[in-house]
Amino acid sequence: MLYLKAEKLDAFLARAAETRKLYVPVDSEPGRSSYREWTPGTAVSRGLHTTRSAKDFFFPQTENLAGFRVEDKKIRVIDPRAETEDFAVFGVRACDARSFGILDKVFLADPVDTYYENRRRHGLILSMSCRRPAETCFCKNFGIDAAEPEGDVRFTDDGDGWYLEALTEAGKAFLDPLADLCEDRDPAGAEAAKEKTREIVDRLPLNDLPVGKFGGGKTKELFDRPEWAELSEACIGCGTCTFVCPTCQCYDIRDFDTGREIRRFRCWDSCMYSDFTKMAGGNPRLTQKERFRQRFMHKLVYFPENNGGEFGCVGCGRCLASCPIHMHIVKVMKRLGEDENEQ
């Protein structure tokens, strides 16, 4: 099995960056990192999570969809799309790697979102096992193995370097020309590193969420629970949870007059905002309780109802770390997971 020593990482990334753009997590301040394009001298973060997920590479926060310009009393439609360059994203954790499959179910379903499809076709995922999962992690509840992330190439961290596995044909094509920077090692070392990760995950405090209380077919049982009113009282509707979430896919489409043309663009939106889904006839969710309920019912009931039981949450823990009043999906699951006669 291929093994990359830690001291060879820069050489590995430099070679990889010769064939495609390469993005790596970089610390912007202690405890906070984000993806940046790799250039010589870039220090790769060894932290667990980037502040925002790798979702941005396929579903960016803002993107131009079309332009409109009046020329000789005719409207010319301008298509701003260009073929996406090949790129790779290094250090994607198991939760984020799973989130891409959830987004695929939304954007690659008929009718296919060609903007998203273009990026997915050109993007390569270099995933990395979690050697030190955090207490805010709860991916195991959703069937995600932090030791074996999905992707094109898997990096299994043993503290001194990484065992490398190509998981797709694209991953193999990427890894083969870089094999000379690696050495051969017994796969038993990778398995030992994975078991250490799983032992840590098994001790995390959020492994016992009542997932069985949620899922498809639970709408009638959960929709009118009285706890929604109390839980939503603390929520300030800031939308932070939706913007750091790797699986949230809500967006708005707006037009902007540049003075030369009308530019139509897409931007992230949040179901926590009071004007979300507002139409000419009004807004179907007028209260904070209704908007709060919508967010969590979608993650835990509506999405699995329509997607073979797969939940719309990957347990990354970003909302736990980011919510200013600590009202997040874990608290909702624990509270609604209680039997009403136990309260």
In total, the number of strands is: 12
Tell me the number of helical segments per DSSP (H or I, 4 or more residues long): 11
Overall residue-averaged pLDDT value: 94
Radius of gyration: 22 Å
- Strand proportion: 15-25%
Count of distinct structural domains: 2
Largest sheet: 8 strands, mixed
- Low-pLDDT stretches are none
Spatial ordering of strands, largest sheet: 3-2-6-7-8-9-1-10
Distance separating the two termini: 53 Å
Order of helices and strands: EHEEEEEHHEEEHEHHHHEEHHH
Provide keyphrases for this structure.
11 helices, eight-stranded mixed sheet, alpha+beta, single chain, 343 residues, globular, 2 domains
Describe it for me?
It is a single chain. With 343 residues, the chain is α+β, with helices and mostly antiparallel strands. The protein folds into two domains: 2-202, no CATH class; 211-342, no CATH class. It has eleven helices and twelve strands. The protein has an eight-stranded mixed beta sheet with strand order 3-2-6-7-8-9-1-10. A hairpin with a 2-residue loop joins strand 4 and strand 5 (74-78). Helix 7 packs across helix 9. The protein starts with a strand and ends in a 7-residue tail after the last helix.
Brief synopsis:
With 343 residues, the chain is an alpha+beta fold.
List the helices and strands and how they pair.
Elements: E1 2-5, H1 9-16, E2 21-29, E3 32-37, E4 62-71, E5 74-78, E6 87-92, H2 94-107, H3 114-122, E7 123-128, E8 153-157, E9 161-166, H4 169-175, E10 183-184, H5 188-202, H6 219-222, H7 227-233, H8 240-244, E11 251-257, E12 262-268, H9 288-306, H10 318-322, H11 329-336
Parallel strand pairs: 2-6, 6-7, 7-8
Antiparallel strand pairs: 1-9, 1-10, 2-3, 4-5, 4-12, 8-9, 11-12
Helix pairs in contact: 7-9
